[in-house]
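Dear H.,

Thanks for agreeing to be a second pair of eyes. The structure we're designing against is below in token form, covering all 254 positions.
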């Protein structure tokens, strides 16, 4: 039983089931890599992911979740997360965050990646590189005996060192039979009495959201799309990660 009563630890058998879910999601992202180019619409990207998930006999996690209308959140440039796919056409120089999840035999997986469209600015490239490195450093902290706060400290330290800000109003999360489970996983230094010990069997979605300018965000009139308050670029990467006795296991690795 977990020391943290509200957290649902997974058995090795359950983690294997989540790994199967995660590997299908990884295949979706591999397919999207060839699709996300200048001239394509965000709706077309979403359709590729939706069709691939459904054809595999699985369920898109996000579609219908609290009323969200699509299989993917697709967020362009200053959009941080939760962008609704539509008729927006991607162009050279854009950066595009795709967040997608699926359910296989009752088990969720969740992942995100930011893509460069053609030639992007040096600043955009640095932002994407830093955010990927933030995710890697955060995952290294997902070991038994550490605290959840160690994950956020790793993200914040790297982001600030590179001159970027960390979104604080959106966090990572536990995952399993539900898309969002305890614990919340902040991407910043968040020391409080509620700072769970990381235990073997914990499965979490770690997802740093890093901005070029202010950390502040606002919500678009559609009620979903989160934007940077200063309309500067944002990047987002995410993996579903299981804590094992041998260290973190990335279930959505590709």
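And this is the sequence the design step returned. I haven't edited it by hand at all.
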């Amino acid at each position: 039983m977990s020391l943290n009563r509200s957290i649902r630890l997974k058995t090795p058998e359950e983690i294997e089931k989540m790994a199967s879910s995660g590997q299908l999601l990884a295949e979706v992202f591999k397919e999207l890599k060839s699709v996300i180019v200048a001239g394509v619409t965000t709706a077309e990207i979403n359709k590729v992911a939706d069709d691939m998930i459904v054809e595999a006999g699985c369920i898109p996690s996000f579609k219908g979740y609290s009323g969200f209308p699509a299989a993917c959140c697709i967020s362009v440039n200053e959009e941080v997360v939760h962008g609704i796919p539509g008729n927006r056409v991607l162009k050279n120089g854009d950066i595009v965050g795709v967040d997608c999840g699926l359910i296989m035999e009752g088990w969720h997986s969740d992942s995100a990646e930011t893509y460069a469209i053609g030639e992007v600015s040096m600043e955009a490239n640095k932002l994407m590189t830093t955010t990927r490195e933030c995710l890697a450093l955060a995952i290294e902290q997902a070991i038994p005996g550490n605290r959840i706060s160690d994950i956020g400290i790793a993200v914040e330290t790297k982001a600030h060192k590179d001159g970027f800000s960390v979104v604080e109003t959106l966090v990572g999360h536990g995952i399993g039979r539900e898309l969002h489970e305890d614990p919340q996983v902040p991407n910043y230094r968040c020391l409080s009495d509620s700072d769970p010990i990381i235990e073997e069997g914990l499965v979490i979605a770690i997802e740093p959201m890093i901005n070029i300018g202010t950390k502040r965000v606002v919500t678009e009139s559609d009620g979903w799309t989160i934007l940077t308050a200063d309309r500067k670029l944002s990047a987002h990467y995410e993996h579903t990660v299981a804590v094992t006795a041998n260290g973190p296991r990335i279930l959505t690795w590709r």
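Two observations from my side: The longest strand covers residues 95-104. The two ends are 32 Å apart (CA to CA).

Warmly,
E.
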